[in-house]
Structures are given as structure tokens and as C-alpha cells.
Amino acid sequence: MGLRYARPMITLDETVSTHRPCESHPAARGTYRSTNVVVLLFAALLITGCPMDEKFIFFPSAEIESTPKNFGVDYADVYFTTADGVKLNGWLALKPGAQTTLLWFHGNGGNISHRARGLKPLRDRLDANVFMIDYRGYGRSEGSASEKGTYEDAEAALSYLTGRSDIDSKRIVFFGQSLGSAVAADLAGRHDCLAIILEAPFASIPAMAKAIYPWLPVGALIRTRYDVIEKVKKIKAPLLVVHGDKDDIVPFEQGRRVFDAATGPKEFHALGGAHHNDTFEVGGDAYFQVMRDFIERAGNSRK
To answer: In which domain, by residue range, is 197 found?
Structure first.
């Protein structure tokens, strides 16, 4: 079940390669350039003095390839506006009788249509409403992606949910996958939530760059930070970190570092044999049960 793009963040050889779509897409395996291309590109950046900008981080797609309807889910096609005036799109799937709502922040590629297949199992297995959004520049959302912009987008999504009479604002769970983990962690550091789940979180963008190219001093060229390590220190809500121990994009040890940095109530679940994009399949029933039990414990702690 494809939920995230398989493109590693700031992997310079892939940013100049053939576009690599969602891992469930037939063209899911992009081609790699040689190490020489990486060195040449890095040299060019040094010579020009240009920092590595958002084009090395964000890989949005405008095309909506499927909707929850394709997978038997009724949903509301929602539009809402950020504080800085950007119109965003999201899908809200309500589950009759559900008390909890999952606010879902996806990874750095594609759009919500590439995660449509995952909405139904999350809604049904977690017994929760699910609201998934596209960041600015993704899918039908306006604007261009940036770190600051994704934080604004998360604020607007939460504001939209809390403004609905059919959503219990005290029972919202933030769910971030990969890059979305940074967005969810930032939001949880500034707003109360029932709980927060981070799947395959990285320590920071510079940390990812160092892990991928330890022999290149790329950190000085990166303006985008997404410092998850610092953000989780501000989270007071119960935190669950889920990470595949065979993750081929975000090193497993970075997920552990994120967990270790958190100071509030926390749990860590290692998905044995899971890579970056196959957590649903490899994790199976246990994947959903761990999340559901965690949410139930968080809810009981509030009573």
C-alpha cells in the first residue's frame, strides 16, 4: 500500500534524475546519477554561493490520480485558507460514532491522492475520522512549498478541524509520516492534542544530508531545517514513534534519536522488516493495533 514517495530528501543524485513517483506507481523506481554528478553539483553550489533551496526537499505533484471514493470511502472534498491567504485542499472521511480524529501530514512527494488507499484502513482500524491535507503547492492546493509554509498549512488544517461542530477538538491526534513528522511535531509543540504519532521521523534535514553524504559539507548550504529533535522537546502530549528497522531512506537510528530527545510520555515501536514505504503491509495487523492501543491509552489518561 503506497503511502509516501520513495524519494530520499536532499539526495542530490536523485534530484537530477528521472522523477520518481509513489512507490505504488508503475514507475516507482527512479534512476540514479553517478557520484560524479553529485560532486559536480555540489561544486557548482559552492562556486555560485547558492544555498540548497526547497527544490531539493519538496517533490509535489498536481495530478490527482485517485480519491478515497476509488477505495469505497465517502469523504468531503474540503478547501480552507491559511493565515497568509493560501487556499488548501484536503479530504475528510468521517466514521460514524468515532470520537477521535486523525490529522494526517504526508511525506515530501506526490499529493494526497497517492495516499488515498491508506485512508480506509486508518479510519476503520483506528476507529477514527481522518483528515488528510495537501501542503501548499501539492495537488489542488495553491502556492509553493516551503518549510514555513508547511507549518502555516498545519495551523490552518487544525483550525479548520476545531471549527467543525462534528469534531471533538480535544480528541485530535496528529499523525506525521517522514517529512510530515516534522510538520506534526512542530504543531504539537505549539498546540494541545490528544496524542501524536510520528512514523519514520528524521532528526533534521541537515542530519539527513550528513547521513546520505557524510563526505560533503552540505549542511552550510541548507536553509530548510525541519529540526525534529528540537521540536519533540516541546511536545507534552503522549508520543508514539514508529519506524521500520529496514528503512532504506530515513535511517532507523534517526527515529531512535527523535524518541530519545522527547521529554514527555513516549513509546517506540520498531517495525521488524519494514522499509520506508511498506509499513502498512509489513506491519500488518500489529501496525494498526499498536496505534489504536496507544490512542486508547492517551484517551484514558485524559479522563
So the answer is: 59-302
- The CATH number linked to 70 is 3.40.50.1820
Bridge partner list, 177 = 199
Is residue 268 assigned to a domain? yes
Number of domains making up the chain: 1
Residue at 26 is within a domain: no
Residue 235 forms part of a structural domain:
yes
Higher pLDDT: 22 or 72? It is 72
Of 61 and 22, which is predicted with more confidence?
61
φ, ψ of residue 278 in degrees (nearest 5): -125, 30
Helix (H) or strand (E) holding 286: helix 279-302
Query: φ and ψ at 277, to 5 degrees?
Result: -115, 10
| Number of other CB atoms surrounding residue 43 within 10 Å | 10
In a domain, 79, yes or no: yes
Which grid cell sits at 102? Answer: 486523525
pLDDT tens by residue, 230-247 = 999 999 999 999 999 999
| E strand residue ranges, the chain | 59-60, 76-81, 87-93, 100-105, 109-110, 128-133, 172-177, 195-199, 239-244, 266-271
What is the pTM (predicted TM-score) of this model? 0.86
* pLDDT score recorded for residue 52: 52
Query: Grid cell 476545531 — which residue?
Result: 162
pLDDT tens digits along 150-173: 999 999 999 999 999 999 999 999
